Amino acid sequence: MTKLLLTTVLIFLTSVAAADPAAVVWCQEVAFSESAENKDIDAFRSFLDGDARFVGSGVVRGPDEIVAAWQVFFSDDGPAIKWRPQFVEVLKDGKLALTRGPYRMIVKDPEGNEAERWGTFNSVWRRHVDGKWRVVFDAGDTAASPPDEKTQALLQQENDC
Fold first, then answer.
1. pLDDT for residue 19
2. How far apart are alpha carbons 43 and 36 in whole angstroms?
3. Which of 51, 116, 120, 145 has the most crowded CB, counting CB atoms within 10 A?
């Protein structure tokens, strides 16, 4: 009886998890941000697809170049960055997903004064054979002004993952 109950629960949990891949990608995006928030460069690298591209004023290709380009966020005196997905869309075949949302960067000038910079990020995630989602494309754009309060509040939401 216990074995039947356990099997039923596992089937249910598996079907729930499989039913909402957007929730899985949302959690991956949050964990990706938390790796930068916690200045954990190894964790950050683990979210990158082997063929990843980060696009800004130029294109940075592959995990080694991306980690080198983002090194400033992992130094103790570097800027702080945090982002959260506002939108998550997963293709019907479950192989690619798009996340988009606000980011906030806190920078310090040479005198130690802090300034906030806001923007929007877009990430494309690819689901690998092992089931793990990794970032394959990422791009961001700075905002002319801070977003509305509702959008800013996304960065304060509880992590339900």
1. 59
2. 8
3. 120
CATH number of the 21-156 domain: 3.10.450.50
Tell me if 26 sits within 8 A of 85, measured CB to CB: yes
Q: In whole angstroms, give the CA distance from residue 6 to residue 32.
A: 32
Q: Are strands 80-83 and 133-142 parallel, antiparallel or unpaired?
A: unpaired
pTM of the model: 0.86
pLDDT bin (cut points 50, 70, 90) of residue 148 is: very high
DSSP letters spanning the chain: -HHHHHHHHHHHHHHHHHH-HHHHHHHHHHHHHHHHHTT-HHHHHHTEEEEEEEESSSEEEHHHHHHHHHGGGGSTTSPEEEE--SEEEE-TTSSEEEEEEEEEEEEE-TT--EEEEEEEEEEEEEE-TTS-EEEEEEEEEE-SSPPPHHHHHGGGS----
Domain ranges of the chain: 21-156
14: pLDDT strictly greater than 90:
no
For 79, other C-beta atoms within 10 Å of its C-beta total 14
Q: How many CB atoms lie within 10 A of CB 28?
A: 23
